[in-house]
Specification:
Elements lengths: L10 E6 L4 E5 L2 E5 L4 E4 L4 H10 L4 E2 H22 L1 H6 L3 E6 L8 E5 L17 E3 L4 E4 L5 E4 L5 E5 L2 H12 L3 H8 L3 H14 L2 E3 L7 H4 L1 H4 L3 H9 L10 E2 L21 E4 L5 H7 L3 H7 L11 E2 H12 L3 E5 L3 E5 L11 E7 L2 E2 L4 E6 L4 E7 L2 H13 L8 E8 L1 H4 L2 E2 L2 H23 L2 E5 L4 H8 L6 E10 L5
Parallel strand pairs: 15-19
Antiparallel strand pairs: 1-5, 1-6, 2-3, 3-4, 6-7, 7-11, 8-12, 9-10, 10-11, 13-23, 14-21, 16-17, 18-20, 18-22, 20-21, 22-25, 24-25
Helix pairs in contact: 1-2, 4-5, 5-6, 11-15, 12-15
Length: 481
């Protein structure tokens, strides 16, 4: 980006996307990409020439208007612009604003969804406009500066530093004149940039109460920025980023092992294995268990036993089978389902009361069905128990607090865009499995809504960005009252 802004009159510039091809088909033009194609019929000869030219280099709106109107008049120009919205929502066309004299664009709007609908709404010189609270600026993978929003079906590349300065000014609210003064742009360039941002859904006018439409929208008021962004980026529809099981690190990085191997275990406790035939004979039916399932916060006074804890972990989280899939690596099968058979979740038990087990932090070994002692009880572990106690409104002091941690790269090695969403879905499935098993056993289960992931990583000795907590679950000896 250059240091000073261009003060020349603004120009609107159209360009076909890099992956778009244009071919002639008699009197029509076929515009195609890997995603879509459209046949443009009824264009004048000049209109067809302009469309072919757009495949090679951008054209300003003035250049398009002159070339087509000179060759075919107003009807030919109207027919050409009739197709512009269709090309935009098919992600085949970009729209940018720039100063005159062939300068690089200040900002480029690129549709990123098939649901994009172009609206070139006029910007009032008298009105103040403000950036949506959902909009954000980030560095793209290629190094450029991007403006995106979960409310928008488009992305804006902020090419010139004046455009970046304009986003800062619009964060506070600005008129066209305010924006021109603060960023050093000419008035019409400032207005063109704001028109571009308005058409992309990044800014809106302020009313007499200094409020935007989204501020008055009861639905949007209840969305937090990070929640809406996470929702839109981990689902299809509002972005063009790669998504799904793409194995993007195959042959680049080795996958994580299917089961963690802890670096340091102070002691190992073998857990009793239940007789599954006996378990089936005494278990209530599924309907009865589902109907009886509740979160138990008022706990009984006697401690859970090692046999009960062993049966619970065996029925919910043990490794049932190990296998290898070609070059995709090793996998396991466990009692609960997991997206892509990732089984990235690890269980850590902060034990306060369990007959025959010293208080402390333990890792559950799902292959050998054992507990590995990581550290004895201390003030940090008591603080973790207190957090869970507080999360239950002070009604339950955990006998056993099961912290569910995720080894994130076990999932992101395969999945793109949806990796963390998959981790949370897997966590929810494990919660449900734990609730049902605990209810069938007559134990007291209670899911916990919040926990301190930084403290957990410090206690467990993990890298926060490789493995940390994503959920907590209280387990007690009985259902209480």
């Amino acid at each position: 980006m250059s240091g000073s802004s261009d003060t020349a009159p603004a120009q609107w510039v159209y360009a076909l996307a890099d992956d778009v091809q244009v071919t002639s088909a008699g009197d029509a033009i076929v515009v195609s990409s890997a995603r879509d194609s459209i046949k443009l019929s009824g264009l004048s000869a000049a209109g067809r020439e302009v469309m072919i030219r757009l495949a090679d280099h951008p054209c300003t709106e003035d250049e398009i208007d002159t070339a087509i109107s000179d060759g075919g008049g107003l009807d030919a120009l109207t027919r050409f612009y009739y197709y512009v919205p269709s090309l935009l929502h098919r992600r085949m066309l970009t729209l940018s604003v720039r100063g005159a004299n062939g300068h690089p664009p200040f900002a480029v709007l690129e549709p990123i969804s098939k649901y994009y609908r172009h609206r070139r709404a006029p910007v009032s010189l008298a009105s103040r406009y403000r950036l949506s609270r959902f909009a954000y600026v980030r560095r793209g993978e290629g190094g450029g500066i991007h403006l995106e929003s979960p409310l928008s079906h488009a992305r804006v590349y902020l090419v010139h530093e004046a455009a970046v300065q304009a986003i800062y000014a619009l964060g506070k609210g600005a008129t066209v004149a305010n924006l021109a003064t603060s960023s050093g742009m000419a008035l019409d360039l400032s207005r063109a940039l704001m028109t571009l941002l308005l058409s992309g859904g990044f800014i809106d006018p302020l009313d007499e109460r200094d409020a935007m439409p989204e501020d008055r929208d009861a639905t949007l008021m209840q969305w937090e920025f990070h929640d809406l962004l996470f929702h839109t980026r981990s689902r299809l529809g509002r972005h063009d980023y790669p998504a799904g099981g793409r194995f993007r690190f195959l042959n680049r990085l080795p996958p994580q092992p299917p089961v963690k191997v802890p670096e340091t275990v102070l002691a190992t406790i073998a857990l009793p294995k239940p007789d599954l035939a006996e378990v089936r004979s005494r278990d209530p039916g599924l309907e009865a268990v589902m109907d009886a399932r509740v979160s138990v916060r008022r706990l009984v006074s006697w401690p859970i036993t090692l046999a009960e804890l062993g049966e619970f972990l065996f029925r919910t989280a043990r490794v049932k089978r190990q296998y290898v899939v070609d070059d995709k690596g090793a996998f396991t099968s466990r009692p609960y389902p997991s997206g892509g058979a990732s089984y990235e979740l690890e269980l850590y038990l902060t034990i306060d009361q369990c007959a025959g087990v010293a208080p402390g932090l333990y890792w559950y070994d799902p292959i050998n069905h054992a507990l590995g002692l990581l550290k004895g009880m201390d003030n940090d572990l008591r603080a973790t128990l207190l957090d869970a106690h507080t999360a239950t409104a002070g009604l339950a002091w955990p006998q056993v607090l099961i912290t569910i941690a995720a080894r994130f790269q076990r999932v992101s090695w395969k999945y793109e865009a949806m990796a963390y969403a998959t981790v949370l879905k897997n966590t929810g499935v494990l919660y449900a499995t734990m609730y049902l098993v605990a209810t069938a056993m007559g134990l007291g289960p209670c899911g916990v809504g919040l926990g301190d992931s930084d403290r957990f990583a410090r206690l467990a000795g993990t890298n926060y960005f490789e493995e940390t907590s994503v959920g907590e679950f209280i387990l007690s000896s009985g259902r209480g009252h």
